[in-house]
Amino acid sequence: MVEKLPMTAAGHLALEEELKQRQAVERPRIIEAIAEARSHGDLSENAEYHAAKEAQSHNEGRIAELEDKIARADIIDVSKLSGDTIKFGATVTLIDEDTEKKAVYQIVGESEADAKKGRISITSPLARALIGKKKGTSVEVVAPGGAKAYEIAKVDWK
User: Fold this and answer.
1) pTM metric for this prediction
2) Where are the beta strands (DSSP E) in the chain?
3) Which end of the chain, N or C, is more open, meaning fewer C-beta atoms within 10 Å of its C-beta?
4) Where are the domains of the chain?
5) Does domain 5-76 have CATH number 1.10.287.180?
């Protein structure tokens, strides 16, 4: 059984765009660089050739990874979700119980997580602590930086 990867439609689109870029732009550019470096003669001491071959290997590996993620995608339309219980796709407003600082996070798939943009992976310690909870509840999260307590101030579906 193939394990499905939950992701938002926006996360799926971003993966498809990166795949197209790597196949249509990066792959031909790297092939051109290899051909150019090959024309310089002796390949054993040709740094450009080895760098281009390494870039090709990295690009092809990423293409295979993207194709796998896209094939296993379980696209969840967050706009059709509702309720006051936190689950995948929820945008949660948290209040740090120590500092009173407010933070807003959307729970997304691993491949689209970006904490700086307020998107946390469903597998992160914070998201795992939040799943199944409701507004007004306090949660304690044991993260690499130590234990933190948050109050769930709001649950949105955007």
Assistant:
1) 0.78
2) 5-8, 73-76, 91-96, 102-108, 119-121, 138-143, 146-156
3) N
4) 5-76, 78-156
5) yes
Distance CA 101, CA 94 (A): 8
CATH number of 78-156: 3.10.50.30
83-102 confidence digits (pLDDT tens): 889 999 999 999 999 899 99
Q: Which helix (H) or strand (E) holds 51?
A: helix 47-71
> How far is 89 from 18, CA to CA, in rounded Å?
22
| CA 141, chain centre distance (Å) | 21
CB 149, CB 98: distance < 8 Å: yes
pLDDT higher for 79 or 100?
A: 100
Distance CA 12, CA 25 (A): 20
Measured distance CA(143)–CA(131) in Å, rounded: 16
> Residue 106's beta-bridge partner residues?
91, 119
Residue type (1 letter), 84? D
Q: In the sheet that 138-143 helps form, which strands lie side by side, from edge to edge?
A: 119-121, 102-108, 91-96, 146-156, 138-143
Length of the chain: 158
Count of CB atoms situated within 10 Å of the CB of 29:
13
Which sign, positive or negative, has the C-alpha torsion 113, 116, 119, 122? positive
Residue 23 corresponds to which tokens in the numbers above? 């196949």
